[in-house]
Amino acid sequence: MVEALVYAYFYLVLYSFLGWICESTYVSIPKGHFVNRGFFYGPYIPIYGFGSLIALYPLLPFQNNPLIIFFLGSFLCSVMEYITSWVMEKLFHMRWWDYSYRKYNINGRVCLLNSTLFGLMLLALVYVVHPFAKHLVTSIPFIYTVCFLGVFTIGWSIDFVFTLISLMRRKHVLEKMRADVEEFQAQFEANVQMGLSEIEQRKEERQARKEKRREEFELWVSQQENLQSRLNRFHENMENIVAMKKSHLSSAFPERHVSEEFKELKRIADEMHEKFK
What we know:
By secondary structure, the chain is an all-alpha fold. The chain is built from 9 helices and 4 strands, in the order αααβββαααααβα.
């Protein structure tokens, strides 16, 4: 039992590494330069490792039926990708990948193209890669495998901590941005007493009113001398957001964008930053 778990963990690591190679190659070629794909700093993408284990263990009874491996494997991997996208967005207020521009997508989180590629990769894994990998792994003395996994786990744990710190820092900066803008807006509303209800207005009128109100808000901010310290803090926070664009995660996910709840706030914050800095 212990030996089986050790080998399962080794396959998780191995296929996380192979997934990183495939993903980085897939993204790097169209861009014309190397992209270190994945959340972690190291060369591995665990979602591929877990996806591989789905094919190697739950689908093992269907190994003689390639169609079941393809369709069921595609479905399970797509479900895992969708859940991962949703959880990461809820935790860190960021959409890390978005397939909305592709045909046959579901909320931009999964798409038919990627699901098909998952199925093809699982077929190659089950019938070509894994038999070779299994022969190779079982030929290595078991104690060496255990030692390698021990060292790898330490390195992966350190990588996980630094990645989590980076993600939490992003979340904190975005929440500070939202707090800054909402504070400005709240004080603006209190000063000019614009508690207007827009529910009964038509869509076009509501949009025009929002634009006018935003312009009045920006003019008001620029005229408030007592807000200078808060503006300085706001601009410092926005500079932190700009600096994050040079981080590993930003390079790994160039198509990322803030979640829907932050889009309007981010747009206002960017415009204020450019106008008043």
